[in-house]
Amino acid sequence: xxxxxxxxxxxxxxxxxxxxxxxxxxxxxxxxxxxxxxxxxxxxxxxxxxxxxxxxxxxxxxxxxxxxxxxxxxxxxxxxxxxxxxxxxxxxxxxxxx
Length: 98
Description:
This protein is mainly α.
């Protein structure tokens, strides 16, 4: 495959609205060449006998078991609130609504 050109990187930077100096564009073109070459190398490897994976290590859910527990009542939850109204926390308004 042909190398990533300075002009291609410049075009992509403009599409992404990223300001880059000529030196940064040249460096980025070089870095992208390495990435593309790596992907091409991996694409050429025989992978028919390798099963698809979503994670390289076979992990399962490591969270605790989802066990129902007794929760606070509405009154207990509101007991420490500085202000409550109609069984809900009352907080200062943050939006102006007309």
